[in-house]
Design a protein that fits this description.
It contains 1 helix and 12 strands. The strands form 2 sheets. The chain has an 8-stranded antiparallel β-barrel. The longest helix is centred in the first third of the chain and has 25 residues. The N and C termini lie far apart (46 Å).
Length: 213
């Protein structure tokens, strides 16, 4: 009896998923590798000597992989990577003013609305996404952190051909920390600082060639 019910459930799911999968398979796919620049971002630190830890601005790279739902709407999977340093605002025992080897990986599901007509050479767009940020510990530390994050931005798409174009985009990428969290600890058990909570607010400018298949 249980086996029969299981088979019926599978058949029911196949009937439901079949039309959806065929619809998704028919949609154009867009791939965009990009490079850019990412700045901003600081941790509010609960320490009498060091009042904050700042992420140094640096280059960023990554890609988007998206489904073109219609000429005005698109959904992307988005990833970016930034190699950076941590600049310490004030003295921390045993540490200098800058720590190298830190990184920021940003993951989002991002939806965008594209203005103008499909045949326009230049089209503006706005985008919003939800996902997570991974803050990688600097050299000599461990305890990388993954936190909830958003992306809000927009830009322009410049047509270079029927299925090729240039995509220029700016994003605000806030990541959210709780209060009294220790960050980036050493193997000896000591931690760099205790975060006072709030938003790690970064800004990103990227450009890349987008190709549709």
């Amino acid at each position: 009896m249980r086996r029969g019910r299981f088979i019926l459930i599978l058949l029911f799911l196949d009937v439901l998923w079949g039309p959806v999968s065929h619809t998704l398979a028919a949609l154009p796919v867009e791939l965009q590798p990009f490079i850019g620049y990412k700045g901003g971002g600081s941790f509010d630190v609960n320490d009498p000597q060091a009042t904050g830890v700042d992420l140094e601005a640096s280059a960023v790279y990554g890609f988007t992989l998206g489904l073109v739902l219609n000429p005005s709407q698109q959904v992307d999977v988005y990833w970016s990577h930034q190699d950076t340093k941590l600049d310490i605002d004030g003295p921390v025992a045993g540490q200098g003013g800058s720590l190298s080897g830190a990184s920021v990986d940003f993951f989002q599901i991002e939806g965008s609305y594209i203005g103008g007509d499909e045949d326009d050479a230049v089209r503006g767009f706005v985008a919003f996404g939800v996902g997570a940020t991974r803050f990688g510990a600097p050299t000599g530390f461990s305890g990388s952190h993954i936190r909830f994050a958003l992306s809000i931005g927009g830009g322009a798409r410049v047509a270079l051909g029927k299925s090729v174009g240039l995509r220029l985009q700016g994003r605000w990428t806030p990541s959210f920390y709780g209060t009294d969290e220790t960050i980036f600890c050493t193997t000896g058990g000591g931690c760099l600082a205790t975060v006072d909570g709030g938003i790690v607010s970064q800004f990103e400018l990227t450009t890349g060639v987008a190709v549709r298949f």
